[in-house]
Amino acid sequence: MKVYCYMVNDLMKYRLNKSRDDLKSSEILFNQKLFAQSLNRSYYCIFHAVKALLALDCFDSRKHSGIIAFFNENYIKKNKIDIELSKILMDAQKIRTKSDYDDFYVATEKTALIQYENAKKFLIDIENFLINSGQDI
């Protein structure tokens, strides 16, 4: 869905800050051995970084699948962003969904650490993409 394109830079920065806060939360939760909660925040770090990028396209969606599809179609398939980031996003969504909704899912320290590191890489790569595209983040 198209969104109104005023204040897109403010929206992009707001969403990047949410992403950064989610990453900090993931680390704190990980250090407190709250692995399922850390997984959740790692995913939202990635998700909000994607939404920050898509703000510049004046695109938004009420569904996560819509955000992911637009990102893959307009950035991954067009080779603007490395396919590795799509894999990180898809894996994070799958793991977060299992962790949040599957009964008896046990989030491990190893999985939470991998997801935290992936979220950190994802955010850094999106920030670098934005900077290299001339954005003031």
Description:
There is one protein chain. α2 crosses α3 (64-76) and α4 crosses α5. This protein is globular. With 137 residues, it is mainly alpha-helical. The protein has helices at residues 8-31, 35-55, 64-76, 83-101, 109-132. It has one domain (8-132): Nucleotidyltransferases  domain 2 (Four Helix Bundle (Hemerythrin (Met), subunit A), Up-down Bundle), CATH 1.20.120.330. The longest helix is centred in the first third of the chain and has 24 residues, at 8-31. The two termini are 24 Å apart.
Question: Concise description?
Answer:
The chain is an all-alpha fold and 137 residues long. It contains 5 helices and no strands.
